[in-house]
Amino acid sequence: MLIENLAPILIIIIGVIALIFLVLDKYPIETVSICLLSALIIAYLILPDNNIPSLKELLSGFSNPGLITVLSLLVMAEGLVAAGVINYLANLFETEKSYHPTILLSVILIVVALLSSVMNNTPIVVMFIPLIAALSERHGIDTRKTFLPLSYISMLGGMTTLMGSSTNLIGAGISIDYGIQQIGMLDISIPALIIALPCIVFVMYIMPLILPKQKSYKSLFSRDARQFLAEIEIEPNSKLLGVNLKENSIKELANSNILFVQRGEHAFYPPLEKLSLRVGDIIVLAATRKSLERAMQELGDQIHPHLTKEPGDKLEDAGEYLSKDARVLAEVLIAPRSEMIGKDLEQIRFRNFTSCIVLGLLRRSRMLKDRITEIPLLAGDVLLVQGSEIGISNLKQNSDVVLIDWSKKYLPQKSKLLGAIIIFLVTIFSAATGLVELTTASIIGATSMVAFKILSINRASTAIDRRIFITIACMLAYGSALQSSGAAQLIVQNLLVLIEGQSNSFILCALFILITLFTNLLTNNAAVIVFMPISINLAYALNLDPFPFIITVILAANMSFLTPFGYQTNLLVMAPGQYKFLDYIKCGVPLTLLSWIIFILFIPKYFNLN
């Protein structure tokens, strides 16, 4: 008897130890996950005849359809970002019109919820953080009352469709292993919306009253306020040709400060009341990096500094090359012993030997007011450069400059915007209507993003989060071990003793709050992988349809409101919102209780459980 129970007990002990390390959070989650997988492999080697999954079965998690779907959708989401879809939607809210702050924030959060229902919410939150920061300053909104709701809304939106969250996809994938029919795209939507809609109202209108006021937030975004010196040349086909600067109608240069306009040998300084732009004019301006990025998207090569052509120059060839493939912006620092010191851009010919173009110049000591091409460089100057992925990477080998790695950013490809939207919509439609399985549709969609050059192979690879890949695959191995070793059945047998005599609805509601607590201690994906086998076995033991239990596990695993480490977006907003751990408790506890109460009142009735 002891030998028979040794395997399930060993699996449970391994899981408890892994849980302790995850809660302590002293090691990265992927490290703990790999150690968990290693422990399972060792357990199989020690007890090969005790129903512990073989090495092949343990490693099968890396090819799990749910995991492949998650990774494919991450690539597709990156494709939407690369094409500027998210950026385009975010820019729609950047208006000078005065709206009531509550209305403006409500519209933004509703858009976030809708987007999160069909794509990974992490890039959505990343894109909307600076947008909300800018709008908050302009419209007098307290950012501390907006960033945490942003994270929570994205989670609530993500739980409403099968493809809205990796948790949903993994849970659906595990259920297939138990012979349960594939969960459809919208099968989860009605019970999820029953919970999500009241919670969204709470997050939008009650949570801001709970969160404390923020004294100052400007310092958090001081990097965005840095002013680079840049220039724009007016070309024959320019949008700016003939524009009267007095009218202040240059939306492409919003939030920029025009220093002067160079026309031939003459310079015109503000106020520029009667000046209309002509071909050949050069606008010298001070602008934030964000403003320059927007100008690049609207004006293209016109923002490149004008350099004179010299014999033997490959300037034109470089320009053609850059216009097609240079979608990366980065900042480089002039090194202390650089040979560029004391020379201007005309003398250096920076574009020729780096295949990168200097867009802006930042000198921390003072604001520059000369043409960017005529200023001798000093050690410590920061250059904002544009180039291809290869060109930017090659700057690491250049001893004259220091590439600031974290400053790298891809420019959206507006020409690919329509293609990215079509690929995404076709993927959703084909999966929602059942034309093809979601896994198949997502793989084809991700492949199309690369095939139509919306994404490069390198960027597509970068979009695949190794933590998600390793953690989910290793946790799937543990879920398999729970089932095959009998550990899940052993846990269920003990649970049946505890819940003997209780109604089915009580059991379902107790399961919901139990998983909710665990998902805040672990991660959402770990919680769904651990509890799905247990819940399905519990349903079979009670002679009930396992579908309500599957949906309960998925919904509860999405309720990561109590801790900053329960979900990735909670961590993303922690710094810009200056949140403390207590803020998550203050907001997360009532939100969790609200979701539980709604679940108790409506979900058992929805599934006809007594």
Notes on the protein architecture:
This protein has 610 residues and is α+β, with helices and mostly antiparallel strands. Among the domains are: 236-299, 2-Layer Sandwich (Alpha-Beta Plaits); 327-403, Alpha-Beta Plaits. 55% of the residues lie in helices and 9% in strands. It has helices at 2-24, 29-46, 55-59, 65-82, 85-91, 101-116, 121-139, 147-158, 166-176, 189-205, 207-210, 289-299, 315-325, 345-348, 350-354, 389-394, 417-432, 438-451, 457-463, 466-484, 487-498, 504-521, 524-541, 547-557, 568-572, 581-606, and strands at residues 228-233, 256-263, 266-268, 282-287, 328-334, 357-362, 382-387, 401-410. A 4-stranded antiparallel sheet has the order 1-4-2-3. A 4-stranded antiparallel sheet has the order 6-7-5-8. β2 (256-263) and β3 form a beta hairpin. α2 packs parallel to α20 (466-484), α4 (65-82) runs parallel beside α18 (438-451) and α22 (504-521) runs antiparallel to α26. Mean pLDDT is 82; it is low at 216-222 and 314-323.
